[in-house]
Prior knowledge:
It contains ten helices and four strands.
Amino acid sequence: MPKVVFLFDFGSPNAYFSHKVIPEMERRTGAKFTYVPVLLGGIFKLTNNQSPVQQFAGVKNKPQYQQLEIERFIAKHGLMQFRMNPFFPVNTLQIMRGAVAAETAGVLAPYVDAVYHHMWEAPKKMDDPGVVAAALAESGLDAETLMALSGTPEIKNQLLRNTSEAVERGVFGIPSFFVGPELYFGKDRLRDVEEEILRQEA
């Protein structure tokens, strides 16, 4: 069974879309995706990259086509709960540190589900500490413990390591996937990810 890795940042709606379809991919392939929190802003700085909003702001028709792709993906996968976050772009530093803290505490999966819900289904200003704490508590998580842990040097350094190691492996944006050593970027590569999983399993 190949090792399958999903590198994510909550600030990317395309990472949210990927997260929502991964369970079905896991059922079809028998593979288990390992979630690795990284900081998208850090990746951009280390690779001299920019968000699509910045890259294509002055390109005629490109933003409109990207929106069309989103609408098609939503319809194809039945993701009607998606709502564009009115506070986008959100500074995700705190909630990404929280993801590393949740992993340390053994609650990464429910934490990821909760934060994606509050980012892209019932969208809130998830760079406001008070809003984050209330959202985590609403989702049944120990907000006080997770937020305290996320402020420790160990957690901060682990997020930095995750981010730098991703760039060293060739990552330049989110969502990114590894199937064994093979890198795939973007939600539009999910079919290729699944095919590579099955190829490596054969």
